[in-house]
Fold this sequence. Notes:
CATH architecture of chain B: 2-Layer Sandwich
CATH topology of the largest domain in chain A: Globin-like
Strand order of the largest sheet of chain B: 1-2-3-4-5
Largest interface: A-B, 20 and 20 residues
CATH architecture of the largest domain in chain A: Orthogonal Bundle
Structural class of chain A: alpha/beta
CATH class of chain B: Alpha Beta
Helix content of chain B: 25-40%
Low-confidence stretches of chain B: none
Oligomer: heterodimer
Amino acid sequence: MAKETPEQKTTNQILIEQLMLNVGKISAIIEKQGQSIFGHKNLLSNNEINDYSLEFLELLTMLLQAGARVDRRGAEYKALRQFFANFSQQIQVRGGDMDEFVRYIHFLQSTFLENLEADKSVSFEKSREILMLLGTIFNDIILEVFHIYLETKEKTIQAQQEELKQTSTPITEIWEGVLTLPIIGSLDSSRTMIVMEKLLSRIESDRARVVVIDVTGVMAIDSQVSHHLIQMIRATGLMGATAILTGIRPEIARALTSLNIDLSSVTTRSKLSEGLKEAFRQLSIEVSRPGK
Amino acid sequence: MIEGIHLTPIGDGNVLLEPGEGLDPSNPESMVAPVLEFLQRHEARRLVYDLKSIRLIDEVYYSWLTKLYATCRIANVEMVTVNMQPAAAYALSLTLSQSPPFSCALDIHSLK
């Protein structure tokens, strides 16, 4: 059987041959570059980098062997994408940046191209096809990795926001029948819903009779926020508990006045400590120093 | 016997009202007079309306409560709701523009 000339070979065959012939050299270059990108920040150990490099070459060979055209729905392509998805997630989890990962992928691409340049038997036409094939594969991978990166970031931000919502309004039973609710930050509709739900459930479970709502940590107030506050106080009253509002800053008091918000029906005190005294007074609780 | 309502004198001039399945809040006229008659017969000073079984207080139900309150007031009987559920309190607070005219207490034990 006559030997195939480079022109008779498909783009995939040429690439596979290049990989097979130069696997040692290519993997050594990839490992070295991987160590310089990921190793200096201890993102990956040398063993991990070596394993990833070999796995990548293996998966790429499988993809090229699967058919003349890259099938995006094929198992080989999915495996390569999954490999990069896992790889990028690991880098991200260990505090790596997207830049490092993109640099690594670009480097992989250029390693193949340099290798191709050294092979004088491959025509310009075939080189162009190989370049396009590699460009398609690697661009898709970069897009996929970027998509995963954004998704992971978004999930992290959402989880942090949720955690912040939960922890920024700790409802504490400061005394039997007395709850304190310090509000820090801004109150919007979604947060008010969470706070109100938590507060009303606590009033029911703790049989609370007085709730001291402290707004010292609220920096700004608008008509919507004050409306939410009044709703919260009203719901507390409907449950049969009394709400005391404390810590209204002068600038907030001024804003409430200019917004024509009437707090005359709400018990207010300047400080949390004053609010607690009022709560104890309402429950006929006396707190005194020993010996007095 | 008033349909959908169970009334029990619980001492000290208090009468407990427990709403049942058959209560129709959209027709308060048919219920307020018999309730008032019961309260006067038992020389009640306070009507304790137990909301434990009420999951949602909508405008119709709230209207029934305010009508009952207005009737009690004419007869010099205080009306207090107890055991309002968190979800009901939350939903009602969203629709109210002012505090309800009747008193609200946590439960019967917290009544003075």
